[in-house]
Design goal:
The termini are far apart. This protein has a five-stranded antiparallel β-sheet with strand order 5-8-3-22-15, with no helix packed on it. Strands 6-7-4-20-21 form a five-stranded antiparallel β-sheet, with no helix packed on it. Strands 17-16-14-19 form a four-stranded antiparallel β-sheet, with helices on one face. It is α+β, with helices and mostly antiparallel strands. The protein has seven helices and 22 strands. About 35% of the residues are buried. It has two domains: about 120 residues, Sandwich (Immunoglobulin-like), CATH 2.60.40; about 180 residues, Roll (C8orf32 fold). It is about 25% helix and about 30% strand. Helix 4 runs antiparallel to helix 6. A hairpin with a 3-residue loop joins strand 10 and strand 11.
Length: about 375
C-alpha cells in the first residue's frame, strides 16, 4: 500500500493509510472518554447541589378511644344536641378504622375551615337512662419537621424543601384577630418591640418564639389560665399551652405573619397505653415558599433541651383534632362560638349544656415505631 504524503512535513509527514485511520479512531475514542468523564462530573456536582430525600420521618401508631357519657334527661326535656370533634387527617396524621358506637343516630359534618365533627340529636325518650357515645379509631402520627438552620449573624434560615402553598384567602384569614387574641394594643406594641431589627419573616418568627419561651412560665395555679387570652398571658406571663400559643399567635399576626392554633391530645412518651387526662395545643405559622412551619412553645419551655427543635417541629407524641378559635359549628348551634373545640359540646333548648362527661385513652399498636421523648401527658397540657 502506497504511503500518503502530508504536505509540509517532509518524511515525518508520510503515514501509512492504516496507520492514519488508527490514529483517527484513537483520537475519537479519547474525545468520547473525555466527554463521558465531563458529563459524569457534571451530574455528580448537580446531585451534590440538590438535597437528597430525607430519611423517613419518625412515626407512632396507636388506637384511640374518646368516650362521652350522656346523662339521663327529664321526661319532658327538649332534644339534646351533641357535637363531638373528629380527628384531623393530613400528611402528618393518618386515620383509619374510625367507628362511632352509640344507641342514637349521628351525622358527620364539617365546619367552615375543615374541622369535622359528629352530631347527635338525642330525645328525652332516648336519654331515659345514661348512655355512652364511643369514638374508636387507629392513627399513625408522623413527625412534622421543617429543616431550619440557625446562623449566628442572620438568624434563622431555611434549608428544607418548599411546603405546599396556601391560598391568599386563607393566609388573610389566619392574620385576623380572635376574640381572645387581638392584634392591636399591647400585643401589637410588644410584637413591634420584640421584632425590632429582624431581617426577614423567619427572623421575626424566631424572635417572637424566643420571647414567649423566655418570658412565659408554665403554671396552672390559681385562676385565669387555660382560656387562651393573649392579653392575660402577656400580663401574667404564665399559663398552659393555650396561653403560650395565644400570645405567640397574637404577636405573629400583629407582625403580619399568618399563624393558626391547633388542638388535640398529648400521648405520654414513657407509656404504651393509658388514660389521657386533658388536651394539648400548639401552633403553626406560614412563610411564603416554605409553607406552614410547626411550633410548640410550651413543650420548649418544659423541655429546654428541645427548645431549638420545637421551633420548626411537632413530634409524634400527639393527636390533632381541630384547628382554629371562635368556632361556629353549624347553623343549629345557638350558643356563642366555641373558644376552641376539643371536648364535646352540647345544647339543650338552645342553651349550653355542661353535664356531659368525657374519657380519653390510647394504646400503642404492636408495630408502632419507638416514640421520641419530647412530650409528656399532663391534663390540659
Amino acid at each position: 500500500m502506497a504511503p500518503i504524503p502530508l504536505g509540509g512535513l517532509g518524511d515525518r509527514g508520510i503515514l501509512d493509510k492504516d496507520e492514519l485511520q488508527m490514529k483517527i479512531r484513537t483520537t475519537i475514542s479519547l474525545f468520547a472518554i473525555l466527554a463521558i468523564l465531563m458529563i459524569t462530573l457534571a451530574v455528580g456536582a448537580l446531585a451534590g447541589a440538590v438535597p437528597s430525600d430525607p430519611a423517613p420521618a419518625a412515626s407512632r401508631s396507636f388506637e384511640f378511644t374518646y368516650t362521652v357519657t350522656v346523662p339521663a334527661l327529664p321526661a319532658a326535656s327538649a332534644p339534646l344536641r351533641v357535637w363531638i370533634p373528629l380527628p384531623d387527617h393530613d400528611a402528618y396524621q393518618k386515620i383509619s378504622d374510625l367507628r362511632i358506637e352509640a344507641p342514637v343516630d349521628h351525622t358527620i359534618e364539617q365546619a367552615k375551615f375543615g374541622d369535622e365533627f359528629a352530631v347527635f340529636v338525642v330525645s328525652a325518650q332516648q336519654a331515659s337512662a345514661p348512655f355512652d357515645i364511643v369514638l374508636h379509631f387507629q392513627a399513625t402520627r408522623y413527625e412534622h419537621r421543617v429543616a431550619l438552620a440557625t446562623n449566628a449573624s442572620l438568624g434563622i434560615t431555611a434549608n428544607g424543601k418548599p411546603g405546599d402553598p396556601e391560598s391568599k384567602l386563607m393566609q388573610a384569614h389566619w392574620l385576623q384577630p380572635d376574640r381572645m387574641v387581638p392584634t392591636n394594643g399591647v400585643i401589637a406594641q410588644l410584637a413591634e418591640q420584640t421584632t425590632a431589627g429582624a431581617t426577614d419573616t423567619l427572623d421575626k418568627a424566631h424572635k417572637i418564639y424566643e420571647y414567649v419561651v423566655s418570658t412565659m412560665r408554665y403554671d396552672k395555679t390559681g385562676e385565669g389560665w387555660g382560656h387562651g387570652d393573649a392579653v392575660w398571658a402577656c400580663t401574667s406571663k404564665r399559663g398552659n399551652c393555650t396561653d403560650f400559643h395565644s400570645l405567640f399567635i397574637g404577636m405573629m399576626r400583629a407582625s403580619g405573619i399568618p399563624a393558626r392554633f391547633e388542638i388535640g391530645f398529648p400521648l405520654p412518651a414513657d407509656k404504651t397505653a393509658g388514660d389521657i387526662p386533658g388536651y394539648h395545643c400548639w401552633a403553626e405559622f406560614y412563610v411564603e415558599g416554605l409553607g406552614w412551619i410547626p411550633v410548640d412553645a410550651s413543650e420548649a419551655w418544659k423541655h429546654p433541651d428541645k427548645r431549638e427543635y420545637f421551633f420548626g417541629a411537632h413530634d409524634v407524641n400527639r393527636i390533632q383534632f381541630t384547628t382554629g378559635r371562635d368556632l361556629r359549628l353549624d347553623t343549629a348551634q345557638k350558643g356563642d362560638p366555641l373558644n376552641y373545640f376539643i371536648y364535646p359540646y352540647a345544647e339543650l333548648g338552645g342553651k349550653p349544656f355542661d353535664k356531659l362527661q368525657s374519657h380519653f385513652a390510647f394504646q400503642d399498636l404492636p408495630a408502632a415505631a419507638p416514640a421520641s421523648t419530647h412530650a409528656q401527658a399532663t391534663g390540659n397540657d
